[in-house]
Amino acid sequence: MIASNSSFFKLVMGSGVSLFLLSSFTDSRKVKIENTGLPKNNIETVLTINHSADPIEEDLRTALLNFGKSLLGTRYIYGGTSKKGFDCSGFVYFVYKNFNINVPRSTSQFKNFGKEIAIDQVKKGDILLFLSPTRNVIGHIGIVSNADGMQSKFIHSSSGKQMQVMISNLSHKSYTRRFVKAIRVLQ
């Protein structure tokens, strides 16, 4: 028997009863297991699950990132928005569009888009904005792939010497000095 509300699950196991765990409801970092002292043939186990985030949101962030990673190595093409090639904003646009999430097509339009968040609060799937290497305007964009403050990694379509979709580290000096802000589109 499973009785549940948003953060509490009670599983009662007796002889001949199988226990099924649903991975979408478990967060191994926050599971508390208690034995209530019932007789051995009727063991009651209480699981308290405190999710730090909505599991549906986390699934979406993971799916979005996995889709973006499936495009690693796709060549850079100025103005590109397809698997034939991407520019940086075309890549972000294409990835989000795959999940029916509308984001601007142009990097400059991200300046006032989404919710600005502190870099220490970024999650995978959030967006990083950078200055252009040659002008003092928003000129580059990427999607957080590994959230860790200023050590975060991001996936983007690079017009640098690699000229492809790749993963870079925000801590690299060429990105750190150009970093403007992080924004959240997924709520």
Automatic annotation (TrEMBL):
Keywords: Hydrolase, Protease, Thiol protease. It comes from Flavobacterium frigidarium. It comes from the Bacteria. This is C40 family peptidase. PANTHER family: MUREIN DD-ENDOPEPTIDASE MEPH-RELATED (PTHR47053). Belongs to the peptidase C40 family. Gene3D superfamilies: endopeptidase domain like (from Nostoc punctiforme). Residues 58-186 form the NlpC/P60 domain. The keyword Protein transport does not apply. SUPFAM superfamilies: Cysteine proteinases.
